[in-house]
Structure formats: C-alpha cells, structure tokens
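Consider the following assembly input.
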Amino acid sequence: GAVVSQHPSRVICKSGTSVKIECRSLDFQATTMFWYRQFPKKSLMLMATSNEGSKATYEQGVEKDKFLINHASLTLSTLTVTSAHPEDSSFYICSALLAGGPDTQYFGPGTRLTVL
Amino acid sequence: AQSVTQPDIHITVSEGASLELRCNYSYGATPYLFWYVQSPGQGLQLLLKYFSGDTLVQGIKGFEAEFKRSQSSFNLRKPSVHWSDAAEYFCAVGNDYKLSFGAGTTVTVRA
C-alpha cells in the first residue's frame, strides 16, 4: 500500500516552454502532497506544500509564478514549470501524506526534467 | 528550527559486513524520525520510522534504527549488507507534516 506515482518519469523540453508533472496517490487519498527538488548529489529541498482544494504554500525563495501547483483532487497534484530555462533542470520528486495516526510521507519515483 | 546532520558523506562496506549510518537531529520536542533509501534515479523509499514507544525500530530489508534521546541520534544499522543495499540513505525529522532531510550518505558495497 501507499504507492505514489509520477508522470512523466523524464522529460526534455526547449527553453521557454512549460512542462506539467503529475503526482498521484494510487491507493490512498492524500489531502496534502509535497513537491521537492533534488540537485545532483544533494539532499531534497522542499519547494511547496500542496493542499487539496486550496492554494499551495511555497517555501521561501521558490517562485510561485514559476512553479504552479494545482491539487484538484484527493489523489492528484500537478506541478507546472512555466517558461522553463536550463537552470530549472533538476530531479523533481513529489510525496503524499498518509494521514490518520502518525503522518508519514510516501514518495513518488521522481521526474527528471532537462531544459535545453 | 529542526535540522538533521548525517556526518558520513560516503561509506564503503564489504558485502556481508555490518553497516551503521549515523544521524543526529536538532529539534525542540519529541521528534518524528525517518530513514529513507534512494536508488540511483529513483524516488525515496521509507525504510523505517520512529514516533514513540520502543526506541529500537525495525524496518524493511533487514534494517533497524535506535532512537537515543540523550545523544539526539537515530542511527541506522544492518547486520549483514547485500550488494543491493548500495544506495543513498537519508535521515529526516518531521514536524507539522514537513520533513527536513539530512544531506544523505552514499553507501557503496564491494564484493
């Protein structure tokens, strides 16, 4: 149980285009999901907290107009990187919070974004 | 503020040998503590977690961790390492649903 999927697993796009990444909780409902960014050989950096039916909460230094987050249902959150540039190239990982009792985050497999 | 320190950036261990990964945390109250493992190009898999109760926690894949409040530590151990254990290991502390991660420890397993 507690499986989280991400789509696509990898994407290559041209500079200036937008890319949407989906995060789904497959066997549980998640009112809260998180988006992380991971640089090579580095730890995970929390970008934002996504709450179903409300606006996302962004961490300090993360541009909310650049990284659009939508959490339209209890099993789906999307991250859209708008007007992507090469510096946005990274590994993006989402997680979903399994509520009820001690809360635990379950992570998706990640999406490798490369912006040319 | 909460923070996590993993003192060892890289550990090399022989297959069949024991493994211990160190984790120290800074947190004002009783922490929720986690260990995750990440294989190359993959997401994170939860190995084990501690919320309360027994300070020795058993996880998946033969891993265990011990919470020591006096030392602010939550070290991960495995008695006998398999080649498939080669990966990146992250310790994390949680609060208000948010996780703070350590920098990670890379484990290399030699034959």
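Chain B touches chain A through 20 residues (CB under 8 Å). Ask yourself how this observation constrains the way the partners meet.
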